[in-house]
Each structure stands twice: as structure tokens, then as C-alpha cells.
Design brief:
Layout: H1 12-25, E1 30-37, E2 43-49, E3 62-67, H2 75-90, H3 95-103, E4 105-109, H4 114-120, E5 144-147, E6 158-162, E7 168-170, E8 178-180, E9 191-195, E10 197-200, H5 243-253, E11 258-266, E12 270-273, H6 285-302, E13 306-308, H7 309-312, H8 325-331, E14 336-342, H9 345-348, H10 358-361, H11 365-379, E15 384-392, E16 396-403, H12 405-408, H13 414-421, H14 425-433, E17 438-449, E18 452-461, H15 471-476, E19 483-487, E20 493-496, E21 500-502, E22 528-536, E23 541-549, E24 553-561
Parallel strand pairs: 3-4, 3-11, 11-14, 12-13
Antiparallel strand pairs: 1-2, 2-4, 5-10, 6-9, 6-16, 7-8, 12-14, 15-16, 17-18, 18-22, 19-21, 19-23, 20-22, 23-24
Helix pairs in contact: 2-13
């Protein structure tokens, strides 16, 4: 296995070589393929991880895991690499990992958006939301502040600009921090804070930040509840208009064996579940209960809270987001999907009781002091940079400093990267193992005389989730029942039963009550199905059977007629 360093962020070429090395060294477990190309033509790599000796990947229930759909959110790529390394390293050493790769498939796409990540990881980084494709207009902005590393030190900080009508002043308690100017405060030294950058067509008075020429948000371009630009900024001209999103939608839609999905983002240190656009009351109760159970396991394993986007993670109380990956996976395909926001600087600084999005609008000054103390102690002053003088080409004397967002906020600092991504493999493994799984419970062949035989098979779902996975999938009618197909020997015929037949769904254990009561103590065998055939085969031979469910997997069996 390749020697990986989990205290660094890999650029595209290095990431590609790492993935190729895994596939070359463990071809029995890892297959590397491209699911398409990005806007700039880079291959989007997918590692398919399963034990090839126990069957094809498509014939096993699967978990999808991806990362880095947003340009600067590069630690999700590391989370995917860490999980890949975990699976390969522990297969043959840990029974649960070995069993998972024998019976399940894991599809890992570490870098959905390689173009944006290359910009973010460049020596002089460029910060955009997602794709590098110009949108909604192709022309360059002609005026306003353009974010740029103006002093060439590889960092994008803030600019502190003296202004007698500015809304900020230096804190009297901690001079490195800025605080809001009071509503009636006058007579002090005040500042405007702007991102580090240069000004195009500056008139000497007016400051405004340019809208990025690259205005797409790829996580608003998925088909579920997609809305146009006037309602959802950055959503693209139509659903899946962007190649990075279309790559995912086409691959996943063509693999109905995918029973769950996790997409890694940053930041907030939280596990998010659908819906983004509507309240829990709109979700089928059984799906909501199961979502909460899976989320509770995630919290137990990772320490991250699990919450609803709509109820607990909205950017504005009067607005919702749509066209997101997890909403699409759940709402259209009917599988349990999650967005994991890696890393919480607040929690690192000892700030535990805070509201994820609301905190950025309003929080106590003491929180800023805790964060500054943490930065000084753990990041040696590189997280929050002391203000220093700089002669700006348009503004003249300003100061640069404040938070180095790329280092301390957008992703874990490299020294903390492995510790943070190491939280997830156990939950991802568990999530894969809760999928439905078709297996043969028992079989029987009975000679009836005259070249006639009665065949019997009992198949069952041994997984925790039902074969259909969610009630939403049943509503959408996106899951076919179990298909059973016989192959008869030459000269044989069926006296009863069918050569091919589609049966119903098999339940799992997910929708059971938490304890037995008078309301829930009857355990019907709705996880099993008994099948019988009568075969006329005067010459004997073998009868083959395939039991397949697109989500629960495939089982093959042979009866010998003597």
C-alpha cells in the first residue's frame, strides 16, 4: 500500500498517483476508474472497493462516499483517502472489515471537483465556491475588489482600512481583535474590513467586492427541487448542467445497488440530513425515525452532532436551499444520504454550546478571545495573523491580518487533519453494513418419481434495512422487487412455478420498536420468502437459480437432480 501522509493536502497529480498505487498494489480489492471529466478536462476518479473474489461490485449492496465538490473544501478528499486506506489495511485483519468487503461494495470519489481544488491549493490560491466555469456570464468583472494575495505570501487574509465612518474598531480588551462600533459611538479610530485583494476601476471612494466570475455552486445543481438563478444563486442553467454533477448523477443512477451515501464538506463539525427545503413533518415517519437512528450512531462514533438542515442549519430563517446532493439521493432515489461538515474551530477552542450558522451573525466577544487563544497556542500565530502594515496599490497604507481562513477555518490545519478524518471510518463501515443483504436461508430437493422433482428455496434479507431501503423509495416506485430466475437442464420442463418471476420486498429490522411491548411483540417473518417449483427432468441434471434484488444483492444456487 502507498505511504500516505495525512498531514498534507494533495494536489491533483499526487492524488491520482496515490489512487493508482492502491489499485496496482491491491487489484483484488481496489479498481480505479473515471466517472467522467471536469470542466477543465481532468478525470474524476472513482475507487471501487470490494473483494472481487466474492462477486462483482454491482451484485453487492453499496455505500457511496465522496468529497471536495466545493473548491476550497479539500479535507473531504483526505477523509475519502483515509477511509480507502482503512478498508485496504484492515481487510484480513478485522473480521467486520473483511466481511464488509466480502459482502458489500464501497464507491469512493475523493475529488468531485478537481478544477476548483487546484485553484484552492495553488501557490497563490484563488478562492471560489465550486466550478471554474464562468457563470452566469462569461465576461470578467470590471470594477470592485478582486480577492487576491496582494503581498504574495501564499495567504488570503483581511485588510484593515482606516475610515472615520467605518463600522469596526480595535478592541480595548484585546488589541488584535476587532469589535463592532457602538450604535451611538463617535470620536474614535474606525476601520472597514475587506478581503485581501486589489481594486479594479477604483474611484477613490467606493468599496465593493466583485462577484466571482465563477458563480456556480455545484451543490445546488442536482435535480431534487432545483430552482433557477432568481431563486437559487449558482444553481446553473438547468439540473445537472455541470459535468461534475452529471458525472455523479449518471453513475449513481445506473447503480441501483447503492443503498446509502455520504458526501464530505467543510466546515462546522456536524452531520446533516435532509430535507434542506422542508420540515421533518413532510418526511415519512419511518424514514425520519431511521434517519435519526443512523445519525445517532454517527454522533456516537464521531462526536459530531446530527441535525436537520431545514431545522438547524439554514443560512437565513426565511430562505431554504435546494438542488443538493443528499436531498437528491434521498428524495429521488430513496436511499439514506448525509452531508458531513468536517471540522469545527469553535469546538477546538472550547466553544461547545453554539448554533452552527447563527453564531456567525451574533456571538459573545468571549468566543473570539477563546478562538484567538486557541490559535496562539496550537497554530503559533499562523491561524490568526497579527495585523501588519502594507502599502496597497490603490488604497495606500492599510494593514493585513486577521484569520487565515484556509488554514484555520475552511479545513483542519495540517497538524490536526489526520485526527479529524480518523473519526469517520467506523461510522462509514457501519453504514455500509446496515444495508439490506439477500441470502439463501435453506434449500431442498425432493424426488417425486417419474422424473419429477420438487425444489424449494427460502431466501431472506439478513440486513438491518429493508430491501427497498426507505419508504420514500416505495412512494417513488424506484425499487423493483426480488427477481428469481431458473436455468433448467436440457430436456427438462416446469410443471409448476415460473422460469422467471418478480416477487415483492423483504423487510429488515430497522423499523422495529426499541423494546418489546404489547404493541410490537409479534415478529412476523416478512424478511423471508419461501419458493417452490416442480420440475420434470427425466434425465436428471442440475437446476440453477439466480435470486437478485437490485439493492440487496445477488445469490446463485444449484440443485442436483438424481
Amino acid at each position: 500500500m502507498p505511504e500516505l501522509q495525512f498531514d498534507t493536502y494533495y494536489r491533483y497529480d499526487d492524488l491520482t498517483e496515490i489512487l493508482r498505487a492502491f489499485a496496482a498494489e491491491r487489484p483484488d480489492l481496489v479498481t480505479l476508474s473515471s466517472i467522467g471529466t471536469s470542466f477543465e478536462g481532468r478525470e474524476v476518479w472513482l475507487a471501487t472497493v470490494t473483494n472481487a473474489a466474492t462477486g462483482p461490485a454491482e451484485e453487492k449492496p453499496a455505500l457511496w462516499v465522496d468529497g471536495n465538490i466545493h473548491a476550497t473544501e479539500v479535507s473531504p478528499s483526505t477523509a475519502c483517502l483515509y477511509f480507502l486506506n482503512f478498508l485496504v489495511r484492515e481487510c484480513g485483519r478485522r473480521d467486520d472489515v473483511t466481511w464488509a468487503l466480502d459482502s458489500r461494495t464501497f464507491y469512493l470519489c475523493p475529488r468531485v471537483n478537481p478544477d476548483g481544488a487546484e485553484w484552492a491549493l495553488a501557490d497563490r490560491p484563488r478562492i471560489i465556491r465550486s466550478s471554474t466555469r464562468p457563470y452566469p456570464f462569461d465576461e470578467e468583472p470590471i470594477e470592485g475588489l478582486r480577492q487576491e494575495d496582494v503581498d504574495g505570501d501564499g495567504r488570503l487574509l483581511m485588510m484593515r482600512i482606516p475610515d472615520d465612518n467605518g463600522p469596526w474598531r480595535v478592541s480595548k480588551e484585546e488589541p488584535r481583535l476587532m469589535v463592532q462600533r457602538g450604535p451611538t459611538e463617535v470620536g474614535g479610530h474606525y476601520y472597514r474590513l475587506m478581503p485581501e485583494g486589489v481594486l479594479d476601476a477604483y474611484d477613490g471612494v467606493t468599496l465593493k467586492v466583485q462577484r466571482d466570475r465563477e458563480g456556480l455552486d455545484l451543490n445546488r445543481n442536482f435535480p431534487a427541487n432545483w430552482r433557477q438563478e432568481d431563486e437559487q444563486t449558482g444553481a446553473g442553467p438547468y439540473p445537472t448542467s455541470e459535468p461534475e454533477v452529471r458525472n455523479l448523477v449518471e453513475f449513481i443512477s445506473r447503480r441501483p445497488n447503492i443503498t446509502g451515501g455520504v458526501t464530505f464538506h467543510t466546515w462546522s463539525g456536524v452531520i446533516l440530513r435532509p430535507y434542506s427545503h422542508s420540515a421533518d413533518e413532510e418526511m415519512v415517519a419511518e424514514d425520519l425515525w431511521t434517519y435519526k437512528s443512523i445519525g445517532a450512531k454517527g454522533t456516537e462514533v464521531t462526536g459530531y452532532p446530527n441535525i436537520s438542515v431545514y431545522h438547524d442549519f439554514r443560512y437565513h430563517p426565511k430562505e431554504v436551499i435546494t438542488g443538493t446532493f443528499d436531498d437528491w439521493l434521498f428524495d429521488h432515489l430513496g436511499v439514506f444520504a448525509w452531508t458531513v461538515e468536517i471540522w469545527s474551530p469553535q469546538r477546538q477552542a472550547g466553544i461547545e454550546d453554539y448554533k452552527f450558522i447563527d453564531w456567525y451573525r451574533d456571538h459573545p466577544f468571549e468566543d473570539d478571545r477563546k478562538l484567538l487563544t486557541w490559535s496562539d497556542r496550537e497554530l503559533g500565530g499562523e491561524g490568526y495573523v497579527d495585523w501588519y502594515s502594507f502599502e496597497h496599490p490603490q488604497l495606500g497604507p492599510v494593514e493585513l491580518g486577521g484569520w487565515n481562513m484556509m488554514l484555520a477555518w475552511r479545513n483542519p490545519p495540517p497538524k490536526f487533519l489526520e485526527r479529524e478524518v480518523a473519526k469517520f471510518p467506523e461510522w462509514l463501515l457501519w453504514h455500509g453494513l446496515i444495508s439490506p443483504r439477500l441470502e439463501l436461508h435453506s434449500d431442498e430437493v425432493e424426488a417425486l418419481g417419474g422424473g419429477n422433482y420438487r425444489l424449494q428455496a427460502v431466501v431472506q434479507n439478513s440486513g438491518w434495512l429493508p430491501t427497498y431501503v426507505t419508504k420514500r423509495a416505495l412512494e417513488r416506485q424506484v425499487v423493483r422487487g426480488m427477481v428469481v430466475e431458473l436455468a433448467l437442464p436440457d430436456g427438462a420442463s416446469l410443471k409448476s412455478g415460473k422460469v422467471r418471476e418478480v416477487h415483492g420486498q423483504l423487510e429488515g429490522r430497522a423499523y422495529k420498536a426499541s423494546s418489546p411491548t404489547v404493541w410490537s411483540a409479534a415478529d412476523a417473518t416478512n424478511d423471508r420468502l419461501r419458493l417452490t417449483w416442480t420440475v420434470h427432468a427425466p434425465g436428471g441434471g442440475q437446476v440453477g437459480a439466480i435470486f437478485r434484488h437490485e439493492r440487496a444483492g445477488t445469490v446463485r444456487h444449484v440443485w442436483t437432480l438424481e
